[in-house]
Amino acid sequence: MKNTIIASLLTTSFLAAPVSAQDVAGDNKEQAGSWLADTIVVTGARERYAVPSSSASTRTETPLIEVPQSVQVITDTLLKEQDRRQLNEALINVSGVTPTRSEENVFISPIVRGFPAEVYLDGLPIFAGNQQAYDPSSLVGVRRIEVLKGPTATLYGGGLGTPLGGLINVVTARPDDEMGGYVALRAGSFSTINPYGELNLPLGEGIAARIAGEYQSNDSWIDLVDGERWSVQPSVSFRPGPDTELVLQGQLNHRSSLEYSGIPAGQALAGEIDRNAFPGSPVGQPRTENDNRMGTASLRYAFSDGLVLNVTGRYYSGEIDEFGSFVSPSFFPADPASPTVYPVAPVTMDTRTKEATFDANLMLRTQVLGGEHTLLFGASYDWTSFYSAMGLFVSNTPSGTIDLADSEYDLIYTPQVPVNSFTDDRFETFAVYLQDQATYGPLHLTGGVRLTSLKFIEDSNIGVDNDSTYTRLSPRIGATLDVAAGIALYAGYATAFRAPFGFLGFDSPRPETSNNIEGGIKLALSGAGVSGTIAAFRQVRENVTISDPDNLGFFIQSGRQRASGLEVDLVWEPSPAFSLLANYAYTDTRDDGAAPGDGLTRVPESSGRIAARYRVLDGPLSGLSFGAGITAFTSRELTLPNTIAVPGYAAIDAQASYDLGRFSLGVSVINLGGREAFDPFSYFGDAIVAPNQPRSAFVTLKAEI
């Protein structure tokens, strides 16, 4: 067998190195055996690469073992082998992350280490306010997902400020000079039909184009809830010389479904109501539509090997037209004589978001003061316009009643138009930042600071009128120490801040802040095939905005919330034939303001996952691979103060595929054991839940182009 030269193409955020290795060889069966790093074979046959790198935490190419922060990377290989088609499905592979269910992603953001995180695309923000307005439910064209745990203010920010709990960076594919692509068809449970594909096309010397696309229609295990989504992602790259790259990317996304609002938790957990009931007025209720469009330009110019300029900009436009109906034990409780019969409240909501965001940074590598330094100087600007309007049960009159124990589904939906409340907000952020990564033998130091000026204007017809400017200095410092080959100790401290969104109260709002201190062990043992992080952390969030218990519809800033715990993220790949992923998180959360000593909502105290994959690389069964995983978590609180919790559960998933060269066939099963349980759900603040996905099976046929 010929010796192999493996080049680790360190797929980066939008602002760093231009090419993703998976763009070239992501589906090659002999390279698909890595959950640690994206690799490309330059010559010859298979060889492993065991030290992953990322630019997510530092915006410079840095081995993860030298980064003083827990950063986990979900690679294209893992996404494909586990048949992960949506962001929430992928994030279970990272410890300490509470994903957002796809049905509720316009209401709540994912949670990292107990606090809200933000979803970025290729290193740039997409404004969400207190919602996850951008819907990255389609993972077609995605090359990796990078999860940065803890406050991430030094290098990132926009909209209302900087990520308080963590950052989830979705990295998309870029064109390259290799002709190739694939088309695939996935089908299965709940009438799911899901064609998707990618095509990369060289157009000439230094010019290439790529297009990725996906369509899906499906029903649901929840009564009446069906939906569809599509995504089209064209891009073109220009490389006039080895030192210059310009990439233009577009993205158009659409998702629509009958909006689901969850069911009352107490009765659902007691088995008193139908777990799959649709709690609303479905007759004539339009689908909720989520549409967004964006265009991105990225320029990378290398003056020399040690001096590189990155400039990026994006314009985003999104519209969400929501038509919902819901039961609310708080607003409209059931009659005690018929406790499963609830009034149904219709609601109409319209959201319009526009955002222009820009970032430029200059990276300089130099030797000074006796060490090797990587300096990063940068500036960013973000302008956001956010309009949100709501029509909610005019005159406090429900549209009828529904029996959740025996639903007839004959209630007619009444659109609440014109809207009776709105907010019209503008946000403008300007920031400059400086970072230094210094190496002195086995010691790697990282320090940075960001100065941010955030101006926001909030106007509404409900009393939320706020015109404020915040100026904040956000520092970060950390170090890693190599104690042996492939083993390092690390410690880090970081901060973040964020303006309160839509605050309506009797006191002037203060910015929410967070800080995080963490430390642990990093592994990159290439010989043993072991990579990962073991981390202990303590994170504090100040000036938290919550509902005012004494004044309905108003808010207060309760003071402090905190989270501390232990996280383990490990991957073991002793050979290209076998991968084992294991993660575990112990997360102790506490509120020190409105409900002293109570745990934060939605966050399990213990959670973890273990998943394995075996690939047959030689012999008559070459091309066959199969895997399985189990995900488990303990109970999760639904309210603050704590009054009710959802019990924990475990679910098994399994996958198999057979690669016939140009063609491949895959099968995946979700919830193999058929476990019936509930997950927390968010809709107007009630204690509600949603049923977990029952046993589901899917088949994928794929053809290389």
Automatic annotation (TrEMBL):
Name of the protein: TonB-dependent receptor
NCBIfam families per UniProt: TonB-siderophor
Domain TonB-dependent receptor plug: 64-159
Organism whose genome encodes this protein: Qipengyuania pacifica
Entry's localization field: Cell outer membrane
UniProt xrefs under InterPro entries: Beta-barrel_TonB, Beta-barrel_TonB_sf, Plug_dom, Plug_dom_sf, TonB-dep_rcpt-like, TonB_box_CS, TonB_sidphr_rcpt
Membrane topology: Multi-pass membrane protein
Region forming the signal peptide: 1-21
